[in-house]
Amino acid sequence: MSRKRILFIHPDLGIGGAERLVIDAAVGLQQRGHTVTLYTSHCDQRHCFDEARDGTLDVRVAGNTILPPNLLGRFNILCAILRQVHLTLTLLLTGEISKHDYIFIDQLSAAIPLLRFFSPPTKILFYCHFPDYLLTARASFIKSLYRIPFDWFEGFTTGLADTIVVNSAFTRSVFATAFPRIGLVPRVVYPCVTTATIASPSRAIDSDPPLPGDGRKVILSINRFERKKNIDLAIASYSLLAREQRGRSRLVIAGGYDARVSENVTYHSDLVMLCEKLGLRSATSRNFISSLSVPEDTDVLFLLSIPATLKNYLLRTASLLVYTPAQEHFGIVPLEAMIAGVPVLAHNSGGPLETIEEGRTGWLRPAEGVQWAAVMRMALFEMEEGAVLDMATRGRERIIELFSREKMAERLDGEFDEISDRRSIRGLVLTVLAGMGVVIGLGVAFALRS
Fold first, then answer.
1. Are 218 and 435 in contact (CB under 8 A)?
2. Which residues form the Glycosyl transferase family domain (predicted)?
3. Looking at residue 307, what is its pLDDT?
4. Residue 100 region by backbone torsions, left for phi larger than 0, else alpha for psi between -120 and 50, else beta
C-alpha cells in the first residue's frame, strides 16, 4: 500500500454527524500510514470533537475572513459556497493543494471546479451525506426561485468529482433520483464508530458514578437540537408511561447545541414547553457537574453540547437509546449505542433500516407514541437481563463487522486507489467542463461587479 497525501476540506467543523464522519475518516486514513491535513472555514475549540483540538489531527482554519456564515440570518447556502470558494482559493494561492495527491471533500461541492481546473493532477473524492437541495424547504415561490441556480450548481459541480461515495444505500437511491444526469454510480462507504473507547456490553460498570438519574433507568436521546430530529416523539412517548414507571426512569436528551444557531435555541425552548404541557418536570444543564444537582423529581433532563467523554459515559449507563429522526440519511448514534451494548429504538425509515436488526439489536417503529411507549416499557421493565445482554452482544458484533473505523478507512483507501487506476479520458473531459464552469463563474462575477 503506497503512502498517500490526503487533504480534507469541510465547511464547519462542529459536533454533528457529518463532522464525526470526517474526523473518523481522517483519523482512520492517518492510522493506515497516510499523511492527512484537514482544512475548514470554522472550528470553535469549545464546540468541536476532541481529535480536532488535541493534536490528533492537523486541523487548519482558512477562508473565514471575508464572509460570515450568513447575512442577517439568511443566505446560508450562498455564504457557505462563497466561504468554501474563499478557502479553496487560499489553498491554491499558497500552494497547499500541490502538496497533496488526493482531496476528500464533503457537504459542499462548490470548490470542485476550481480544484479540477487549477490542480488537474489532484484526485477528488466527494462524500455525499445527502443532496443539499433535498434538505432545503421551499416555503414560498420566491424561495423556490432563489434555489434554482444553487440546485443546478450542486448537480453540475458534484458530477465533476473523480468519484462519489455516499453514506448508505438509502442515500444512494435518493442520489440517483436527485442527479439523474451524473454518470457515476456512487459507492456506499458507511460511517463508523470507534470500537476501542467504549466499554464492552457487560452493563455493569461499577467504577462509574451514578448517572444523572438518581438511580433510575435512563432512556437516552442524542441529537442536535433541530426540528427535523423530531425529539418531540421521545418526550410524547415517555409521557405515556405509567406514573410509577416514570418514577423509576428518566429521559435524558443530549446533543449538539450552538447558541449561534437560532433553531437550536428556539427548539430547545419549545421542547421545554412541551414537557410542561404534558405534565413532565424538566431541567437543563450545560455540563455534567450541574446535571448532578437537578431536582430528584426531574422527568426530562436536557444536556446541551455534551463532550465525547460525557456522551460515552451516558451510553455506557443508559438502558435504551431512542433515535427519533425520520428518513435519516444514515444515523451514527444508533451505532454508538450498539457498540456500547445499548438496545436501540429507531424510526423505521432511512439509514436505521440498514444498521438495526429488528428484535436482535433493537426495534424499528413508525412515529407513533403508543408503539414507542410500549417498546420503552418492555426494554426497561419487562426484558430479562439475559435477553438484554444477548441483544448487546449481537449489536457490538454487528458494529465490529460492518461499521468500524478500520473498515471505513479501508474502503476509502480502496476508493482512492481506484481513482488512480481509472482516471484517464474522463478526467480530461471533466477538466474541460470545470474550466468552462470557472470561466462562466468569473464572467458572472465580473458582470455583477460592473
1. no
2. 211-370
3. 79
4. beta
Side chain identity at 238, as an amino acid letter? Y
d(CA 286, CA 272): 15
Residue 144's pLDDT is what?
A: 77
C-alpha cell at 160: 465533476
Start-end of H helices in 136-253: 141-158, 169-178, 232-238, 243-247
- What domains lie within the chain, and their CATH numbers? 5-192+405-449 (3.40.50.2000), 217-402 (3.40.50.2000)
Nearest to 425 by CA among 247, 207, 183: 183
Q: How far apart are CA 308 and CA 264, in angstroms?
A: 19
Judge residue 381's burial from the number of C-beta atoms within 10 Å of its C-beta, 0-12 exposed, 13-18 middle, 19 or more buried: middle
| Residue matched to cell numbers 460570515 | 68
Give the pLDDT means over successive 10-residue stretches in the chain (450 positions): 92 87 95 96 89 94 88 85 94 94 95 93 93 70 77 90 94 90 90 68 44 75 94 98 95 89 94 97 82 84 85 90 94 92 95 95 97 97 93 92 93 92 54 56 48
For 122-265, strand residue ranges (E) read 123-128, 163-166, 187-188, 217-222, 249-255
Q: Are 301 and 214 in contact (CB under 8 A)?
A: no
- CA-angle at 151, arms to 185 and 439, nearest 5°: 90
d(CA 278, CA 45): 37
Q: What cell numbers appear for 361 in the block? A: 439489536
pLDDT for position 22: 95
